[in-house]
Amino acid sequence: MHPRFQGKVAIVTGAGRGIGAGIATLLGLEGATVCVNYAHSAEGAQAVVRAIEASGGRAFPHQADVRNASDVQAMTDETVRRYGRVDIVVANAAIDPRIPFLEMTEEQWDAIIDTNLKGTFLTCQAGSREMLKVGGGKIVIISSVHHVVTFPQMSAYAATKGGLVSMTRGLALELAPYHIRVNCVSPGPIHVEKRYTMTPGYDPHMYDEVIPVGRIGQPDDIAAAVAFLCSDEASFITGSTLIVDGGTSSYSYFHSGTKKVATR
Questions:
Q1: Are 20 and 92 in contact (CB under 8 A)?
Q2: Domains in the chain: how many in total?
Q3: Which end of the chain has fewer CB atoms within 10 angstroms, the N or the C?
């Protein structure tokens, strides 16, 4: 099969681990040259680069804080300096601390908003300006099922993820005349590294009975959805949000007795 993204250049934020790493790896395996962005996970980003290069692809790691406009611009400029263009942007970088609303400080609120909303804005803006120069491109924003149903202590996170869905629709309208498609993927419960420390007694099978498809999701599940939306097969799709959650958001509340499902 001919790689779908041969000759394309992609930037994936928050790609040092978890969902971002899965997305960057699949795009690289499918032929894209990938800027593997990370904030702190340098070893993870290097591992993603090695996996892409082992398949015959091209990738490079780049540390940048997506909250900082100069960092984001430097990342975009470095991608263009190396490879001449930007065709795909996946805005994945996010934080999701659990903080009781009545205890949340202004600084904590700002950190979540700045990373998840402002960081996505800066990443998409810098990338789309480069896409204009090559006649178009694709942007995928990673939201969460928290924009549909959420849990206590996640109010700020849920607010940002709802905002990203709205941002997707707005950008899709503004950028369509420039042949830039903008879509959103909302993951549900995904088996990623942070669960090992966030969930006491974590077992990837602990949610099998409460997820309709019978298993927790994997980063590859989200990566496949992103790759589809970036592909020519999705050429008539823009402004859409694809929920990839094994059916969990179909519940009014995720539960099985006293067991709760922790989503992305």
A1: yes
A2: 1
A3: N
Domain that holds residue 244: 9-260
Q: What is the pLDDT of residues 59-89, one digit of tens each?
A: 999 999 999 999 999 999 999 999 999 999 9
In a domain, 1, yes or no: no
C-alpha distances (whole Å) from 4 to each of 12, 88, 98, 227, 238 are: 17, 12, 38, 9, 19
Question: Which residues are designated catalytic?
Answer: 157
pTM for the structure as a whole: 0.92
3 in a structural domain: no
Instruction: Give the residues across from 171 on adjacent strands.
Output: none
Instruction: Give Cβ neighbours of residue 94 (< 8 Å, ≥ 6 apart).
Output: 14, 115, 116, 119, 142, 144, 157, 160
CATH number, domain containing residue 62: 3.40.50.720
Output the CA–CA distances (angstroms, integers) from residue 34 to 50, 53, 94, 243, in the order listed.
12, 10, 19, 24
Determine the distance from the C-alpha atom of residue 170 to the mean position of all C-alpha atoms in its chain, rounded to a whole number: 18
Does 4 map to a domain? Answer: no
The CA distances from residue 219 to 13, 87, 189, 251, in Å, are 14, 22, 10, 22
Phi, psi dihedral angles at 113 (to 5 degrees): -65, -45
Residue 181, Cβ density class (10 Å: 0-12 exposed, 13-18 middle, ≥19 buried): buried
Decide if 192 is inside a domain. Answer: yes
